[in-house]
Amino acid sequence: MSIMIKKNIATNELGFVFNPATGDSFSTNPTAATIIRLMKEGKSLSDIKRSLLEIYEADKTAIEKDLDEFVNTLKENNLLTA
To answer: Which domain holds residue 49?
Structure first.
C-alpha cells in the first residue's frame, strides 16, 4: 500500500513540514524526515519499513509501531492523501 503526502505540503530534508492550506508547520526528527521523503518518492509502507530496518539498528516491532504511530499523526494533521 502506497501512502502519500499531499502534493501541496512543503517539506525539506531537515524535517520542516508546512501545510499552506492551514498555515500549520511542524518540525520532525531525522527519522520522520526520512519517512516523509520516502512517502514523497511513492514508496509503500512495506518499502519504508524495509528501508528503516536497513538504516537504523532497531527492532522490527519497534519500527513498525513507531511508523504506524507517525502515519496516524500525519493523518490526524490532514497531511496525507485519501
So the answer is: 10-76
